[in-house]
Amino acid sequence: MNGLIIGGVTPLSTLDFPDALAAVVYCQGCPWGCPYCHNEPLREITDQAERDGASVLTWLKGRRGLLDAVVFSGGEPTLQDGLGPMLDAVRALGFKVGLHTTGMYPDALAAILPLCDWVGLDVKAPRAAYDRITGVARSGEAAFASLTLLLQSGVPCETRTTWHPGLLTEAELAELAGELAAADAGRWVIQGFRPDGCTDTTLSAAGPTVFPPDLIARLQTAAPRLTITARV
């Protein structure tokens, strides 16, 4: 199983798969240029892979009974053709499979959704502001197409948005809340920006995002069909 280029592994996480102990496998490669990215070293696919798929599977065999799930994150996992076979192999070991994705490749996401037990979809912005955040034209079309696929699949999921007020205004957050509510997205987590790992010095200099005390309540009032929480 050498078809997945891996940038790192977190052996144990209680946060990356709901109500489960999980390992997190970080896949290399992401063509989007979001300025708040905290995994900058994973953007390029290199020959400096920390682990290969075969060694990760060997390690996971020894974690059966200790872990519940394996989450594939990135980078963008669906960029790599080796993701599907790796998910199959992990499921064969008896683990649940989680996926963190930007939804940039809807066709690739559709192909692997039957192998997923839970998906966290990173929604960057309202449609009109997407290209400004990612630096890639029509990126919002791909992300919202993936949102539709995910919601239609019935796979348990949440949408998440990283918020830095220098990148998205509160009005744009409210616009996104309306778009997610219209899609019947269910659960939306707003994650405060943290400078750890971010290479954009202007954003990092501002420090972690501080949420206005009533922000979540105002967004919840504007989009009552969503369940909105903050993660700081």
UniProtKB/TrEMBL annotation:
Keywords: 4Fe-4S, Iron, Iron-sulfur, Metal-binding, S-adenosyl-L-methionine. It comes from the Bacteria. InterPro entries: Aldolase_TIM (IPR013785), NrdG2 (IPR012840), Organic_radical-activating (IPR034457), rSAM (IPR007197), rSAM_sf (IPR058240). The keyword Iron applies. The keyword S-adenosyl-L-methionine applies. Residues 16-232 form the Radical SAM core domain. Its cofactor is [4Fe-4S] cluster. One of its GO terms (molecular function) is metal ion binding. PANTHER family: GLYCYL-RADICAL ENZYME ACTIVATING ENZYME YJJW-RELATED, PYRUVATE FORMATE-LYASE-ACTIVATING ENZYME. This is Anaerobic ribonucleoside-triphosphate reductase activating protein. It comes from Solidesulfovibrio aerotolerans. The lineage of its organism: Bacteria, Pseudomonadati, Thermodesulfobacteriota, Desulfovibrionia, Desulfovibrionales.
